Amino acid sequence: MRNLLYTIIFIITCQPIVSQVETEEIVVDSLYKEDQFYVGITYNLLGNKPEGINQSGFSSGFHIGTIKDMPINKKRNVAIGIGIGYSGSSYNQNMLINKNETGHFTYTNLRDIDAEYTKNKFATHMVEFPIEFRWRTSTPSEYKFWRIYTGFKLGYVFANTSKFKGDLETLTFKNNKDFNDFQYGLTCSLGYNTWNLFFYYALNPIFSSDAKIDDVSIDMSAIKIGLMFYIL
User: Fold this and answer.
1) Which is a Pfam family this sequence falls into (predicted)?
2) pTM for this one?
3) Interior angle at CA 149, CA 144 and CA 150, nearest 5
């Protein structure tokens, strides 16, 4: 009898606690925000290549940053995102970057000099500033949803490198002033839950008008296709 009494008292005492836990579980954040951090990997292509310049091997990109999510409607499934991040991109191709006797950079199609090589690439490192218009099917209690984010991305190139390994010699250059300091383009991310396709189309060239092959400006621009992962 005493044991039964203790059991009843225990159940009555614990019930408010259980009720409180259950109440806390169903409480949702009506002022929720989404996708405030991003990590992406891309395959990098070169658009507007000079005649005879081709890519070879795998040209990769890595992107990471944070975005301030600012919903603009009552349902909070439409938002503006403004952020900051880092982007590193490499491009394997057959354009040799070298210096002449006056210290100026020169650009040559490796086919024209019949050079054998095992590596020839250039890379950029940027601080990037994405601006996005965001539409999604999220709710305060739904964490798996469809999204379409379109926008604009401005990047500041704080470092660049080029490297050649071949029968001529090994050539490595850093901070080539012929790279455009600012690079910008249009972006689009779309997908469901974790997996999102990402696309970037540059609106200006990688190199300035001072970079030329046979007195013709190198108007190559970046096109990036890959996957973007968003984290709350």
Assistant:
1) OMP_b-brl_2
2) 0.84
3) 170
Give every CB contact of residue 119 below 8 A, 6+ residues apart in sequence.
92, 163, 164, 165, 166
Cα separations in angstroms, 230 against 63, 65, 109, 154, 193? 11, 10, 40, 19, 9
Residues 6+ apart with CB under 8 A from 96: 107, 108, 109, 110, 113, 115, 120, 164, 171
Q: 154-204: per-residue pLDDT in tens?
A: 999 999 999 999 986 899 999 999 999 999 999 999 999 989 999 999 999
Tokens of 225: 């296709």
Sequence ranges of the domains in the chain: 32-231
Residue 161 and residue 122: Cα distance in Å, rounded? 6
* Residues 197, 144: Cα–Cα separation, whole Å: 16
CA distance 173 to 33: 43
Show the beta-strand stretches assigned E in 11-145.
Answer: 37-47, 60-71, 78-92, 95-99, 105-109, 117-136
Task: Return d(Cα 96, Cα 50) in angstroms, integer.
Answer: 13
